[in-house]
C-alpha cells in the first residue's frame, strides 16, 4: 500500500494518491491531472476510482478531466447531485482497492454531501481517514458556505457537523491517521494547523472542536464565531465542480497566445479585459501598464485572484516574466479563471520599448517614513488581515484590509499623499494597483511593510479601536 499526499502550497490544498496491488484511487485531484496519470504509469498501476470529498469552493478539482482520460468513475458521498456521470455512494458503502478498502462515511455539516473516506488496511484495521473539509488539523470546516444551496442557517449546518464528528469520526481509534483537504492559509476554516498530516488522538486532545465535554450549543457558537464573509468566487467554483468545465489543455491553448503591445492594447480596449501583472512587486513598482492589477505569481496568487477579481468569467490579459505564462494560466485555472485571452509577448519591457504609456508607484523606506512622521502626522493605511492588525499596528493607522478594499475607497484622502503597507510588501502593492485602477494615485507604498516599520523603530500598538474594524 502506498499513500502520497500531493500538497499545493498556494492553495493550501492536499490531494491524495493511494495505490494497492496495481490499483489506484485519487482523492480531490487538482485541475491539472497529468501528474496523477504519470505516477500511476510509473507504478504500473491503473486509476480505478476518483473520490471527491465534496463540491469544493476554493479550487476547481480535476475529477471531470481525470475521469474522461482514465475511465475511472467519480465518487461522491450521499446527497451529492452532480450533473455529470458519477457514483453517488451510500453511507458506509465499501470500495475495494487492491488489498485495501475505502469506506464512504457521510459527514455533512461543511456541506450536505461532505464525506470522509475511511481506509482500512489488508487486515481490515482502520488505518486512515481522508477527511476533506470536515476535519482539519486544529479546526473543522466552516459551516456557512452551503447555506444558500441548502436553505439552512450556518447554525443548522454546524449542528450537523457536530453530529458527524461525534458519531462518525471521534469513535475511531486514536492511531488513525488524519489526511485533511487543507492546511494553514485556506479560507475553508479559521484556525488550521501548518501541519498537513496528523493522528486522530492528537486532534481529540488539541482541536477545540473535538473537546469531549463540549455541548452542541457550545460547538455551534465556537465554530460560527468570527467567520469572515467567504470570497466571492467560492460559489462559482462550486458550480464548476458540480457541472463540469473545459479541459485544462484547452484553457492553456487559448491563454498562451502571444500578443504584440499594439494587439494587447487593442484587445484590452475592446473586451474590457483585466490586465493582470504577475511579476515581482519590485518590478511592478518601477513600471507597469496603466490600470493594470498586480498579483504576483510568487505570492498567495490564486486565492488573491479569486478574492479580488471574483468573477471567474472575467477576460484576463497577462503580463508575466518570459517563460512563466503557461504556469500562470494553470494556476488561474485552479480557481476557475479560464478566460485568459493571451499574454504580452516580451513582457513589460516590450510595452515600454514600443513607447506606450506606463505608470509607476511612489515608494518610501521605513527609515525615511520615520523621519517624516517626526515632522507631521501622516495618514497610514494598513491592508493586513484583522488578526494581524489587532496583534500590532502603527499608532493611529487606519485598517483597510485588502480582502475588502473596495468597501473602503471613500476613506482614502483625495488631495494629499497617504501611505500604504502590509506585512512585507506584497499585499500593499496589490492594494496600490487596485487603488490606482480606481483613479486614486496619491498613494505611497511603504517598502518592506510592517517588518521594516518595526525595525525602523516607528511606534506601534496592539490597541484596536472598535470603530476601525468592520
TrEMBL record:
Per the record, the domain of life is Bacteria
Q: Name one GO molecular function term.
A: sulfur dioxygenase activity
Write the record's keywords in alphabetical order, separated by commas: Metal-binding
Q: Which InterPro entries match?
A: Metallo-B-lactamas, Mito_Persulfide_Diox, POD-like_MBL-fold, Rhodanese-like_dom, Rhodanese-like_dom_sf, RibonucZ/Hydroxyglut_hydro
Stored PROSITE patterns? RHODANESE_3 (PS50206)
Q: Which residues form the Rhodanese domain?
A: 269-360, 374-462
Any GO BP annotation: glutathione metabolic process
Among the Pfam families in the record, one is Rhodanese
> What is the protein name given in its UniProt record?
Beta-lactamase
Amino acid at each position: 500500500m502506498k499513500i502520497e499526499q500531493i500538497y499545493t502550497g498556494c492553495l493550501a490544498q492536499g490531494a491524495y494518491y493511494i495505490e494497492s496491488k496495481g490499483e489506484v484511487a485519487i482523492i480531490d485531484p487538482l485541475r491539472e491531472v497529468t501528474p496523477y496519470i504519470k505516477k500511476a504509469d510509473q507504478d504500473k498501476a491503473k486509476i480505478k476510482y476518483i473520490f471527491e470529498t465534496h463540491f469544493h469552493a476554493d479550487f476547481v478539482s480535476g475529477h471531470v478531466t481525470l475521469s474522461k482520460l482514465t475511465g475511472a468513475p467519480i465518487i461522491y458521498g450521499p446527497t451529492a447531485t452532480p450533473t455529470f456521470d458519477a457514483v453517488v455512494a451510500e453511507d458506509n458503502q465499501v470500495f475495494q482497492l487492491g488489498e485495501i478498502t475505502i469506506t464512504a462515511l457521510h459527514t455533512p455539516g461543511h456541506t450536505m454531501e461532505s464525506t470522509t473516506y475511511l481506509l482500512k488496511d489488508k487486515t481490515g484495521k482502520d488505518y486512515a481517514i481522508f477527511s476533506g473539509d470536515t476535519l482539519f488539523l486544529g479546526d473543522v470546516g466552516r459551516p456557512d458556505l452551503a447555506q444558500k444551496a441548502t436553505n439552512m442557517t450556518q447554525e443548522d449546518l454546524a449542528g450537523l457537523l457536530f453530529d458527524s464528528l461525534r458519531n462518525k469520526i471521534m469513535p475511531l481509534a486514536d492511531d488513525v491517521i488524519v489526511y485533511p483537504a487543507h492546511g494553514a492559509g485556506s479560507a475553508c476554516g479559521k484556525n488550521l494547523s501548518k501541519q498537513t498530516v496528523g493522528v486522530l488522538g492528537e486532534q481529540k486532545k488539541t482541536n477545540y472542536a473535538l473537546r469531549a465535554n463540549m455541548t452542541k450549543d457550545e460547538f455551534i457558537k465556537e465554530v460560527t464565531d468570527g467567520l469572515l464573509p467567504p470570497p466571492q468566487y467560492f460559489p462559482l467554483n462550486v458550480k464548476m465542480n458540480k457541472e463540469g468545465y473545459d479541459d485544462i489543455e484547452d484553457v492553456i491553448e487559448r491563454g498562451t497566445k502571444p500578443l504584440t503591445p499594439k494587439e494587447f492594447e487593442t484587445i484590452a480596449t475592446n473586451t474590457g479585459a483585466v490586465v493582470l501583472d504577475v511579476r515581482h512587486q519590485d518590478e511592478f513598482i518601477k513600471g507597469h501598464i496603466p490600470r493594470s492589477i498586480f498579483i504576483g505569481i510568487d505570492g498567495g496568487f490564486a486565492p488573491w485572484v479569486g478574492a479580488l477579481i471574483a468573477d471567474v468569467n472575467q477576460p484576463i490579459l497577462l503580463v508575466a516574466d518570459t517563460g512563466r505564462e503557461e504556469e500562470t494560466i494553470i494556476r488561474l485555472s485552479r480557481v476557475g479563471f479560464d478566460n485568459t485571452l493571451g499574454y504580452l509577448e516580451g513582457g513589460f519591457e516590450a510595452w515600454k520599448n514600443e513607447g506606450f504609456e506606463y505608470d509607476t508607484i511612489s515608494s518610501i523606506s521605513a527609515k525615511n517614513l520615520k523621519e517624516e512622521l517626526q515632522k507631521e502626522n501622516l495618514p497610514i493605511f494598513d491592508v493586513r488581515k484583522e488578526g494581524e492588525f489587532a496583534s500590532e499596528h502603527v499608532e493611529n493607522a487606519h485598517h483597510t484590509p485588502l480582502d475588502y478594499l473596495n468597501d473602503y475607497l471613500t476613506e482614502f484622502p483625495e488631495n494629499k499623499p497617504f501611505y500604504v503597507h502590509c506585512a512585507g510588501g506584497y499585499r500593499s502593492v496589490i492594494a496600490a494597483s487596485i487603488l490606482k485602477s480606481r483613479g486614486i494615485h496619491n498613494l505611497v507604498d511603504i517598502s518592506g511593510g510592517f517588518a521594516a516599520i518595526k525595525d525602523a523603530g516607528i511606534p506601534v500598538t496592539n490597541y484596536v479601536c472598535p470603530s476601525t474594524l468592520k
